[in-house]
Amino acid sequence: MPDAVPRFYFLGETAVALALPAPACLRQQRRIWQLAAQLRHYPTVCDVVPGMNNLTLSLDPAHGDPEQGMAWLREGWQALSADVSAPSGRWVEIPVWYGGDAGPDLAEVARHTGLSCAEVIACHSAADYRVYFLGFQPGFAYLGGLPDCLAAPRRGQPRTLVPAGSVGIGGRQTGIYPANSPGGWQLIGHTPLRLFDPQGEPPSLLLPGDRIRFVPQEPDHA
Fold it and tell me: For all residues of the chain together, what is the average pLDDT?
């Protein structure tokens, strides 16, 4: 499979970025993580933000040189092998209570996929997931690895309030809401884990490269 060719571009006067064509794949995402880890140590770099198929480099407004930042981005990408090994990350087990009040859309996902509720739970909890990037809100991890058979459209009418800890499916992705917020994903379960703590170090429980496994809990333990 040939390597995807990134597009490099400026973001205003103090940031540069690269973007890869869709779809996202773990092989290229590993390369993004590796480049992000390297660039964090460069002088005048304020922040490095890996996204899904993209990477943004923010520079010190007073001393950063966007042309230099662009050169770092291009040279760094070209120097990395497309077969770079993934960061070791961590294995994180997420306890989940599926269905009922904890997962009010489980039956709808089952109906859409043609599976039973028990099969949805078994399939969702059997897969191994990777954190591709954090976005949408602090601590929200976008996960790769959702089985194709569980892909389900977002709700036609988003909820005005999704409780923190809700586990949802949106299209071909699954994730966990770290805070109370509006949201349109199909909610299939809930975890009591705190996904984001501003006072924590790091503040986010999940980080890019981490590997995730959802662990079903017995209903009478909720």
Answer: 91
CA distance 208 to 29: 9
> Where residue 30 falls among pLDDT bands split at 50, 70, 90?
confident
CA–CA–CA angle 152, 155, 161 (5° rounding) = 125
For residue 86, give the nearest of 125, 131, 24 by alpha carbon: 131
Reported pTM: 0.79
Token pair recorded at residue 216: 């079903």
Cα separation values, 165 from 52, 119, 151, 195, Å: 22, 22, 20, 7
Pick one of 3.30.1360.40, 3.40.190.10, 3.30.565.10, 2.60.40.10 as the CATH number of 7-79.
Answer: 3.30.1360.40
